[in-house]
Write the structure tokens for this entry.
Amino acid sequence: MTVTVGPTGQTPAAPTERPLPTTAVGRVRRRMTNPVASSIAIAVGILWTIPTAGLLVQSFRGKHGQDTSGWWTFSDLTLDNYRRVTSGTANILPNIVNSIVIVIPAALIPIVVAAMASYALVWIDFRGRDWIFIAIFALQIVPLQVAVVPVLRFVVSGAHIGGVTIFPPTGLNGTVGAIWLAHACFALPLAILLMHNFMSDIPRDLLEAARIDGASHGQIFRQIMLPLVAPAIAAFAIFQFLWVWNDLFVGIVMSGGNADISPITVAVSLLIGSTSGAGAELIPAAGFLSILIPLLVFIALQRYFVRGLLAGSVKG
Amino acid sequence: MSVHWLYELAHSGTTIGKLTFAVVMVVLFLAVIGLLLFVIDRAPKTGRERIQAFLFLLPAVLLLAIGLIGPIIRTLISSLTSEEVDKQGCVPIPSPAACIADPGGKWNNFAHFRWALTDHDALQALWHTLLWTLIAPTAATLIGLAYAYAIDKMRGETLAKSLIFLPFAISFVGAAVIWNLMYKQPSQNAASGLVNVVLNWFGLGPLNFPTTGGVRLTLLMIVVMIWIQVGFATVILSAAIKSVPNELSEAAKIDGATAGQAFRRVVVPTIRPTIIVVVVLISVATLKVFDLIRTFGADQYNGDTLANLMYTQFRTSGISAGAGSPLGEHRSSALAMEIFVLLIPFIVYQVRQGIKARGIR
């Protein structure tokens, strides 16, 4: 039951019951809740899901079935494809492990770094902070294409200006570390924006009371701010998990085609590229395995994901 | 050396090794952050706030410098300078420098950009990228808006929203696999995809995906992008529609409006800022789209875009693979800058939104 604010700004004493609609919009709205409109909307939803369902069914069909009839016939069902992509030469389980190993630091590092940066941007008054915020806000739009190759070079050979080395090579070249380091950097603008929006909503009085009690910024950050922005952290974590897991570009550039460290998306895209003849029947199974975990995470944690999406897109 | 075991761990080929490396690095990172917080609490009294702000921002600034700001400058320089030229068939003894005919790095009067704007393949890629950016965001936003309004306050609204949002959780690679199946061209050893079967019912021929090439191929791929992005638009616009106060709809009734008019004249103008945000975000995503084109292999059939061409050029540079032509890196930088230039209007928009948000005069 929502509480509405009257035109002069006062709120009614108690939430009002929704009156029977007499307006044209209200009548249409009521009609919209009728079974026909509901069915059409659900039908569109099902239509949207058919392509994914098709892949799932196809992944359970043998080569003969896939070559001769559509998946809607449900013919030639077998577990063979899944057996072959989880063991033997076409095994993609190691790539799933790579994806997991990439996602963990790529999600954790931006959260901590962004929380600290946002705290300063929201609660510490210093000269130039508005422009720093705007710069970070604008960095969100910068395409990865402009940044990835130099980051790869940095990982391989460090940073130099002229002949001076300001950063030695990290030694992460050819490792999974190169991939999650890149992701951690690229996720920062959005992470800072999300944290910033959540932190701005926390009432100033709370923090001023703590300051009056003699708490320092470090203490306030650790003991008050972090627990309060836990929803933002959860939302961003899910968002970043999906983003990093589903990424192809950063993974394929930073891994340099090294199959040992390729995340699952790179592995599937290579599978498609190489098997246009033999082994092509494995592609649906490999493809579905690659989207299974994100699908499960999404279905289970939808609410938090949507919340994070709204916070990052609508505000600011 | 103590660092040696860390290096070995980083290069480990086993599952346990990789997991351990990730955990170790996270622990190290948290230790550094802990140290930073410790130092923050012990900041000197004079200029305390400024020093603390600096320290809070330090990790972010460092990572942004390494990951974004430095690279942007580097790519810009790379796109404007000449490439290194090596002597053919030379043996790099006593050092690699012996085989360098021209070390490059000189201003080349926009040569790479001139290539990007005159080369046939690069121009096709630009044309396709513009098609993508004009069609996908507007179509996805319109469909998302209509759907969000249609399901508003409906029974089963949550389910409908979940179903339409599901493709957004799937990777572009996964989506390409799914739609390769949908578009599959019937042949001797391949069954027709669902789309071709439906087209057949209407007496229309198969799509010839992906060999049909050109604009047709691009449009078919754009359909996939729309399939993915409609859910994103629906979710955000649905939240915006719900935030429109009832009073406004009541006022429309006083003026005798129908449902369609109420939608066009009341709801849409009220949520206009959100509609713009959605269009901007989908446009930005579309300009960068690489995974779909790459996985469909569309560049072999004249369906290339700037982002994919940038990657192909990068591949020829051989930066991490060893052998290659340095020209590829500079051209890929020029293409990356071209994408960046196309994004400038959106960056300007973002900066203005940021200024408004901070209330700066």
In short: DSSP finds 14 helices and two strands in chain A. The first strand of chain A starts at residue 159 and ends at 161.
